[in-house]
Amino acid sequence: MDLGFIITNAIVLSCIYGTLAIGISITWSSVGLINLSYGFIFAFAGYGAWYTAQFLSENGAIVLAAGILSGAFAGIVVCALAFIPIHDKPNFNVRGLIATLAISLIGTQGLMWWFGPRSKNLPDIFGSWSVMLGDMALTADKIGNVVTSIAFVAAVVLWMRSSRRGLEIRAMMMNPHAASIVGIGVRSTGFYVMAITGGMAGLAAVLLSQTYYISPFGGLTPMIKGVSIALCGGLGSVQGAVIAAMILGLNEAITSVTLGGQYVLITQFILIIGILLVRPRGIAGILDRAREA
Amino acid sequence: MSERAAVLRVKGLSAGYGPMRVLHDLDLVVHAGERLGIVGLNGHGKSTLFYAIAGLTGWQRGSILLNGVEVGRTRSQGPGRYTHEVVRQGLALIPQGDEIFHGLTVEEHLDSGAFTPRAWKERAQRKARVLEIFPPLHKLMRTPVGRLSGGERRMVSIGRGLMAEAALFLVDEPSLGLAPKIGKGVMDALMGVDLGQSAMVIAEQNVSLLEGRVDRIIGMHVGKLKGEAGASMSLHTIREL
Asked: What's this model's pTM, rounded to 2 decimal places?
């Protein structure tokens, strides 16, 4: 029972963290922003969903949509504050990092001041049924989390593959210089990217709130996990991030069974260091068959 | 030539990167329907001239009129920030070294060249036209560009430029890094493009590839345009420019 329980938990968590990691990965490779304010976007989206549940409706779909929309809104705000004013200045990478870190610190303190330090609880958005698989109970929130995150990521990837805006973003991810040559506006693309990745963070926030509570600083751990998955998968690669999320999720499950939960972070970082030593570009380096430049 | 409308009118253009000044108060006029060659050695500012027109240099000042619209500006930073607006005014830059999107397929790559709203609607016809010019791309449409050979990449890069709804095509060293025979084929394709009311400027080190096939050849030397000759002049004369 233990093993099955841990593995299903690991799958659920890797789906959620993977969603966040793909957002971080897309942001970094397309607009060149190491966005450290995802923790804030995450918490903000959680509170947006909570407000909706309190004052509007406890309907699962509405709460989920509210989370995604408030995440997208926070993403746009971060873009307007930390990307638009400085993206064409020298040392943008470092400046962007510091600016987003500042937004994260100020933003989370703001949430703390407004909502107080007490954690909030979201309603069960997927209901409270469960399916028996052998002798293991798969609860509604687990199935819902996995299905929703995969569906959302798949929709985003499909949109990026088929639409004009998606082509714009992918072109930016591969060669920002050439993208400006063909007439792609960096600023408008930045808003699209940040809104979509903010929405992904919002989705992750609502999904994770089915397991944990919402708190002003609750976005920090998911962001660290997301960044490490994105690094391990190779920044800019969606497939890489998916595989990395599965590997790290599996590692989490195996470590907590064999060594104990307190060693998870240790084995996780040993694994990431190992992968990056062999493949400095992350898992994407193995997948990529196209020559760069 | 002078009664034709000017597609590009550059006046007093200086540009460079950081403390380095590459272009020195340069003037240039390109007329509609004209094919112009710019020859000059490496590092004398051919690419910088193209980049300055596109707003991609580190800094620049001077006037650049593209179809009568001022796209030049005095700026000290922000390379590429306004490039998409210049492109919307009708510029198609085919850069040196291809600047491809290595993970996109050839087809997506051609689509990305048609980014102005009207070109995007007509992209099927435009693709067919590019494939007429470069037939070898037909069977490569679904291949990622990063897996193509140098000559094929150059075709994709030029094809992407030709997809645009442009008044001015700037082609930077189309034969660079290619085998002579393939380079000549690429040049033939460029000469075969029907310009209509648009104009094309080709920067090239190899004068013999341009000679007799473009309307004018201008020499470029340490950031200035030096002299001018009809393309029919002998190779000897042009070298003395």
From this structure: 0.85
